[in-house]
Amino acid sequence: MSGNKRMTNKPILEIKNLYAKAGEKEIIKNFNLSINEGEVHAIMGPNGAGKSTLSHVLTGKPGYEVTSGEVFFNGKDLLSLKTEDRANEGLFLIMQYPIEIEGVSFMTFLKYALNAKRQYNGEPELDTMGFMKLVRTEAEKLGISQEMLKRAVNVGFSGGEKKRMETLQMALLKPAVSILDEADSGLDIDALKVVSQGINSLLDGKRSLLIITHHQDLLEYIEPDFVHVFSDGHIIKTGDKTLALELEAKGYTSFIKEAAC
Amino acid sequence: MAQKPDIEDFSGDKYKYGFTTDIETESAPKGLNEDIIRLISKKKNEPEWLLEKRLKAYKHWLTMVEPTWAKLAYEKVNYQDLFYYAAPKQKVKPQSLDDVDPELLKTYDKLGIPLKEQEVLSGVAVDAVFDSVSVATTYRAKLKEQGIIFCSISEAVKEHPDLVQKYLGSVVPYTDNFFACLNSAVFTDGSFVYIPKGVKCPMELSTYFRINAQNTGQFERTLIVADEKSYVSYLEGCTAPQRDENQLHAAIVEIVVLKDAEVKYSTVQNWYPGDKFGKGGVYNFVTKRAACRGDNAKVSWTQVETGSAVTWKYPSCVLQGDNSSGEFYSVAITNNFQQADTGTKMIHLGKNTSSRIISKGISAGHSNQTYRGLVKVAKGASNARNYSQCDSLLIGQTCGSHTVPYIENENRTAVLEHEATTSKISEEQLFYCRQRGLTEEQAVGLIVNGFCKEVMQKLPMEFAIEAAKLINISLEGSVG
Questions:
Q1: Which residue in A57, B6, B134, B278 has the most C-beta neighbors within 10 A?
Q2: In 10 A of CB B275, how many CB atoms?
């Protein structure tokens, strides 16, 4: 199991009795989850169940309202923090569909992001040489070419390339918790492999990962310590990786019915 | 929408050049009539021919009406309620920078334009125009060694009357338009540049305009002549104090480009835009035109427009020589209640002439922006080529953006391309940047700078950095 040996039982993300709305609709209902340092969790559930809402609420995407509940990140009240401060505290979202920004090279973007974090932590900005060296080293490990770094952020990138660049950002920003939102992105197997390898290489037993998916394919490449089944806004069952297989075999509908009994 | 940031959190009042200089000024009485014009001419010790030109223009101006075709709404200017001449009082005409009033030098220091030559970085020669008068021109001696003339237009009238008489008004005649006509009657100062045959100007030349006095119109006049096979890159910057009443600025820039010569003209326009409720700000009615008179002549306008309450400005290229080319690269940013009606005219007269228009408009707040451009191909202009690209970026829900391209083509061999896009900074883009730790303002700045990249790359290095900063400042408080 990835990093299992070094798990510390020190909670990094604690979600307690969380309720949240998107517009008028309540989507997250009495959601509870605690993730310790170094753990890999997977949340599975049918399409349209609101799994992505969870990642958006946690990272502070506009358009959602938390109606009650608490979230602690490294002991801090996460929900009181601005979106960017949550990121700078070490919460990272590997997006389903990374956004394109015309005219801004990845190098520039990465520099802004890294310096934002350094500024948040009261550290001086990286000098250009140090920054370039750091990015090149990490990019090389992930098989990202110099040419890709010069291109505009995600513009004209394939699905796999975009994910690779997300992984690079994760490598550079060293977040304590990453959320991999793959609810319905439909990556092909090759791309899936590349991303999984990249992410696996970054799991050092201290960093935690929350995978959101409806398909167990991904879990063949990144092995979870815990699998949670999501339905009606909360977790209805928790198990180990075999739960994912059981779920796949039975299908969501009958599984959820059984669980409700 | 609990996560939505409150737009009121940001203050939109960040114009850092809004100070005034406490300096004794000498001004002509308010109002406009023949006597005032005679007075201006006399104050400046002008030759008779120039006074006659002024009076002719004034008489014509009286027959003209202010244009209303632009998509601009502003309170009409009372032309009789303005001062047409204001000059910092100086006992004698300064012979060197040491003679210039230290208050004035301090003003330019504050603006980031040190006039002391030893302090000037990277060899940019500066002509500083304060209210109506050129107060200092740096590096003149050095330029003179190569025969380059860089001085105020008032001096040029006296010292190089042949050149001035030959070219002044030859690109923008006094009959051209209402504001140009007014300028021709009352212009007070500005810069004059002459680059002799075969000379590549070794440094950037720059004029820095500053309006200081209250209720004073600024009417400067710039004339650049690039003789055959010469080259010059010219920069223009401008600011004004923060005042509640509107200030009028009606300038003319004329550029003459002879055979095989090239002129690059870059502007960073940062006149006071008014406060966030739309009070005050500069009315900027400017006529800028370049004539490529000889074959293979090249001219390029690059402008970053962030200031002024109202902008009316269409830097143009008249492509007379065969194989001559004109370029227009523009970034215009409007925020709060600013209005801009701006664009270019490319007039193809010679054979194989080409032009390129890249216009990037960013509107935020309650501002309104129009791109208005003309591409005209005359009968004899065979194989003319134009490429136009007009992109608009909207920030928020309350701003407006319009694109009005005119095409007049009389030659069937012309190839004209026009592309236009309108986009918005999306919530998704902002969220993506913020998820990577950027503040909302950093995110907007980054996205806008990316949007303008093609134009910003055309600016000289030191100007580009300044302009990028200016863009970020102009957009503060624009996110909703």
A1: A57
A2: 18
Report the candidate in A135, A124, A194, A128 with the shortest Cα–Cα distance to residue A159.
Answer: A194
pLDDT tens-digit map of B189-233: 888 999 999 999 988 888 876 665 555 678 889 999 999 999 999
Q: Strand ranges (DSSP E) for chain A?
A: 11-22, 25-36, 40-44, 64-73, 76-77, 91-94, 101-105, 152-153, 177-182, 208-213, 226-231, 234-239
ipTM higher than the 0.90 cut: yes
Query: In whole angstroms, how far apart are CA A227 and each of A3, A41, A59, A179, A186?
Result: 16, 6, 21, 14, 20
Task: Specify the length of chain A in residues.
Answer: 261
Inter-chain touch A116–B437, beta carbons under 8 Å? yes
Q: Which alpha helices (H) appear in B11-65, and where do they start and end?
A: 34-43, 48-62
Contact B3 A109 (CB under 8 A): no
Q: With 0-12 CB in 10 A as exposed, 13-18 as middle and 19+ as buried, what is B306? A: buried
State the Cα–Cα distance between residues B109 and B97, nearest whole angstrom: 13
Helix (H, G, I), strand (E, B) or coil at B384: coil
CB contact under 8 A, A109 and B446: yes
Taking CA atoms, B144 is separated from A53, B139, B199, B227, B427, in Å, by 69, 9, 12, 15, 55
The residue count for chain B? 480
Strand B133-137 vs strand B221-226: parallel, antiparallel, or unpaired?
A: unpaired
Return the half-sphere exposure (C-beta side, CA atoms, 13 A cut-off) of residue B17.
26
Q: Where would I find the beta strands (DSSP E) of B169-306?
A: 191-195, 204-210, 221-226, 231-239, 246-249, 252-257, 262-269, 281-292, 298-305
3-state class (DSSP) for residue A148 = helix
Give the gap in angstroms from C-alpha B462 to the nearest C-alpha of chain A: 18
Residue A49 per-residue DSSP state: S
User: B62 phi and psi, to 5 degrees?
Assistant: -60, -25
Q: Would the CB atoms of B447 and A104 count as touching at under 8 Å?
A: yes
Better pLDDT: A205 or B53: B53
Best B4, B433, B452 residue to mutate vs chain A (most A CBs within 10 Å):
B433
Mutate to test the interface with A, among B3, B329, B360, B439 (most CBs of A within 10 A): B3
Taking a C-beta distance cutoff of 8 angstroms, is the pair A170, A139 a contact?
A: no
The strand pair at B345-348 and A177-182 is best described as: unpaired
Cβ–Cβ < 8 Å for A150, A110: no
CB contact under 8 A, A87 and B434: yes
Whether the Cβ atoms of residue B205 and residue B193 lie closer than 8 Å to each other: yes
* CB–CB contact B436 A116 (8 Å): yes
pLDDT at B6: 34
Q: Between B426, B435, B446, which is nearest A104 by CB?
A: B446
Residue A105: closest CA among chain B residues belongs to which residue? B450
CA pair distance A209, A215, nearest whole angstrom = 17
- What is the edge-to-edge ordering of all strands in the sheet holding A64-73? A25-36, A11-22, A64-73, A76-77
B447 closest CB neighbour out of A62, A64, A101 = A101
Residue A4 phi/psi, 5-degree rounding, is -60, -35
Q: For each successive 10 residues of chain B (480 residues), what is the average pLDDT? A: 34 55 68 89 90 95 90 85 72 56 64 53 59 64 89 91 96 94 90 95 80 68 96 80 71 97 90 78 91 98 88 95 97 89 96 96 90 95 96 88 93 94 89 95 90 86 74 70
Residues 6+ apart with CB under 8 A from B103: B21, B22, B23
Give, as one character, the DSSP assignment of residue B21.
Answer: -
Question: Which amino acid is located at B311 in the chain?
Answer: T
Instruction: Using the CB atoms, write b or e for A241-257: b if 16+ within 10 Å.
Output: bebbeebeeeebeebbe
Strand, coil or helix: what is A161? helix
